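Hi R.,

Here are the chain sequences for the assembly we discussed:
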Amino acid sequence: QVQLQESGPGLVKPSETLSLTCTVFSHSISSIYYWGWIRQPPGKGLEWIGSVYRTGSTYFNPSLKSRVTMSIDTSKNQFSLKLNSVTAADTAVYYCAREVSAPGYFDHWGRGALVTVSS
Amino acid sequence: SFELTQPPSVSVSPGQTARITCSADALPKQYTYWYQQKPGRAPVMVIYKDIERPSGIPERFSGSSSGTTVTLTISGVQAEDEADYYCQSADSSDRIFGGGTKLTVL
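And here is the predicted structure of the full complex:
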């Protein structure tokens, strides 16, 4: 059973860079799937941030593209998210997930990591 | 890109049928997927490719599609089905979620 786990700081200061890592268990990140990040501000809906493939190929949400970097480390079975110049509006639960049939759907999700942007 | 529109809320009594719609504002419409999210939990996919049900999802969950509108139907709603439901679709470069529908079981 594929499992994903997000990790990273829970508090980031405004204007700094949010960094999260997703570790994938019981499944090779070098497989045919894409790997994505989705976020959810408190009390609000889901927003796709971006997806990355084993080759490093990426797709980003156009509204976030200028601030997002994603990378993949097949040796550690991990992929990562960096979001720069954060503001309070970036406060959210950040989920990592496996994407099937990209551009497609997300069939396995991590539990989510709450990141708060505050000084 | 495109937008997906869902009703903010739907309420039904136990045993009744709940229908949650998701309308796209542009063609061509790609496949649509549905997720159930309970408080404090990650979303769980309940329907993929408009009408397919993943293994482990109860048969009372079904999907249908007509034009640019897809519908999630929950037949014989149970108290445990109370949750937020999100539709999602994609094009070549974007993945879009609907705004979500809160299903209340009265």
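Chain A has a mean pLDDT of 95. Chain A touches chain B at residues 36, 38, 45-48, 51, 59, 61-62, 95, 99-100, 102-107, 109-112 (CB under 8 Å).

Let me know if anything looks off.

Best,
T.
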